[in-house]
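retry 2 of 3: previous attempt timed out while embedding adenosine-5'-diphosphate. Reduced batch size to 1 and resubmitted. Inputs unchanged:
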Amino acid sequence: MRTSLHGAGCGDSCCLRVQNLSVKIGNDQILSNINLHVHCGEMVALIGPNGAGKSTFLKAVLGQQEHDGIIVFSSPGQRGHKPKIGYVPQTPTFDPGDPVSVADLFVCCQSKRPAFLGCSKAMRKSILECLHRVHGEDLIDKRIGTLSGGELQRVLLALALEPIPNILILDEPLSGVDVEGQTDLMDMLDEIRDTYDLSILMTTHNFSLLDRYADQVVLIDHGIAASGTPAEVLSGEAFSRVFHRGGAKE
Ligand code: ADP
Ligand code: MG
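retry 2 succeeded.
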């Protein structure tokens, strides 16, 4: 089990505070009464069955989903400044025949220059610096459609880390990544969290990695069914009820 360096002492300055958040889409109440604090430097994992509302919650936090309730961001020493949020969406799929390279993707996302003009020397240098953060400099000229699941996640992560955010939000970064790659990716997220002192909020279905990497686990089933340390949530009654079973492995 990991020990959090930061979690407990945040007081009022926690990185993300959500109060009484509810989302209704049409006549469907997707989320009700969500209360959640993500403290500075913490890794928080959202778990729950498919359709439970995890992605909807992340979209509300990102300001992309209408909701009721209060969402407050803050970071120590930056009161009054809007904290930066980095977002890695649920893995998009790319066609293996697609000619777009990793460098092209960076050019499209980070500059106004059309990708077909290629990238300038200065731009290439700054892309390499971004990829260096995820140990991915060697990926710069690879075609996006040929990347493995783990490589693609690293590229998306490098995009989300420019500029370095205060909070990094990832929607199922481990899906589509092989088992060994999942541990590598979690190690990388852990390293990034420590290096840049940022908070991480992610959804996942891989429960076996939670004890090692997550400070806090929140079980969502249209509301918060349970929250606490990985051990508390995974061995709790709510977990068995929501997933209709007793064990914690998936
Ligand atoms: P999860 O990420 O936990 O699998 P989602 O947040 O994607 O779940 O979806 C939660 C529920 O909200 C699902 O029943 C889904 O069909 C519904 N939902 C999500 N977005 C929309 C939308 N734009 N319109 C209608 N229903 C939606
Ligand atoms: Mg989802």
